[in-house]
Amino acid sequence: IDMHKKLFIPGPVDVCPEVLEQMSRPIIGHRTKDISSLQESISTKLQKIMFTDNTIILSTSSGSGLMEGAVRSFTAKRAAVFSVGAFGERWFKMCIANGVPADIFRSELGQPTTPEMVRDALSSGEYDLITVTHNETATGIQNPVGEISKVLKDFPDVTFCVDAVSSLGGAYIPVDEWKIDVCITSTQKCLALPPGMAIASVTDRAIEKAKSIPNRGLYFDYVELYKFVHEKAYQYPSTPSVSHMYALDFQLDRILNEGFMTRVDRHAQLAERVRSWATRNAALYSNPEYLSVTVSCITNTLNISFSELNAAMGKRGYLMSNGYGALKDVTFRIAHMGDNTIEDIDAMLSDLDEVIASFR
Question: What is the pLDDT of residues 86-100, one digit of tens each?
Answer without folding.
Answer: 999 999 999 999 999
